[in-house]
DNA sequence: GTTATTTTTTTGTTAAAACATATAACATTT
DNA sequence: AAATGTTATATGTTTTAACAAAAAAATAAC
């Protein structure tokens, strides 16, 4: 569906505006779908993202700075995000012995189990959208987004 | 910059995942830039969006339902969004005489003035990104996003 | 070796989002 | 016209985000 119809626009929009609205709207659709997947597991999208980063560490701990720089949206509330995961026993948190300012965050087995259970659903979610495109179109969309941001 | 570099990914990502991350990240970049424009005017992106919808009504009032269906992200808090605009005298709110359940929201002259002042900055913002693309590429990005959502 | 500076994380406060529930007006049924 | 149902908006409560500022540890300066 065209973006003008999604927002019931009465007037014609120029292409710059349409792209912006389309990116914003597409993100909403992706997020809404993804939250439906996460809901039964009682974790938020941001919390999931942190778990993914920690799993990607393959056993070595991540401090707050490392977590932040790998997140999509740099939030200043990484501490409280990790707090939530800690309450659910999905991560552990320890002071780093070499530099006692730093905090070593590790994913627990329970955290890994949650991710493993989610993996096929996440892949299905990702492919649900990209299956609408040929592989050339998918590559094209990806590189056009990067060119659009131009940084 | 490639999305893998933006999030400092150590492993190769498949295209489905890259597109998702790219859409989410691009949206963050757009929103961050836009918020910088709005900041001096002390209105949020959502509030701006409502003002745009109201201006688009060209003098005829919009009720809460109309506002909601034209917003990008359907929020259940339209009432409180309008509350904020009312406090700043950017809109008026009146009970509809024909159907006293409905609320007629109108943009004020002050609201129109704010939008007029913002207009050139908003256009500049929109074009800042799309200028990185040729007009064919822009059209292509737009239609690929719509095809990707496929609804 | 004490003081200042910088880095890293945490905390406090205020604002906004999310979600469920409530109220109020209108419409329909009996 | 009372009861029931529906629609439109509002409110209460709980989470989450945003921003500033504080705290704690390491590093640098004197």
TrEMBL record, chains A, B:
Signal peptide positions (record): none
Molecular-function GO terms, alphabetical: DNA binding; DNA-binding transcription factor activity
Any one of the GO BP annotations: response to stress
Superkingdom, taxonomy of origin: Bacteria
Annotated InterPro entries: HTH_MarR-typ (IPR000835), MarR/SlyA-like (IPR039422), WH-like_DNA-bd_sf (IPR036388), WH_DNA-bd_sf (IPR036390)
Domain annotation HTH marR-type: ranges: 1-150
Keyword DNA-binding: yes
Record keywords, A-Z: DNA-binding
Name of this protein: DNA-binding transcriptional regulator, MarR family
């Amino acid at each position: 569906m065209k973006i003008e119809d999604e927002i019931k626009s009465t007037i014609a929009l120029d292409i710059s505006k349409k792209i912006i609205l389309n990116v914003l709207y597409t993100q909403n659709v992706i997020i809404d779908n993804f939250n439906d997947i996460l809901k039964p597991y009682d974790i938020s999208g941001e919390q999931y993202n942190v778990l993914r980063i920690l799993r990607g560490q393959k056993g070595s701990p991540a401090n707050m700075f490392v977590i932040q720089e790998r997140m999509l949206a740099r939030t200043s509330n990484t501490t409280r995000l990790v707090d939530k995961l800690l309450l659910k026993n999905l991560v552990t948190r320890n002071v780093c012995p070499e530099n006692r300012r730093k905090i070593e965050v590790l994913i627990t087995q329970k955290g890994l189990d949650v991710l493993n259970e989610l993996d096929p659903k996440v892949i299905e979610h990702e492919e649900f959208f990209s299956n609408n495109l040929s592989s050339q179109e998918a590559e094209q969309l990806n590189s056009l987004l990067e060119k659009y941001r131009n940084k």
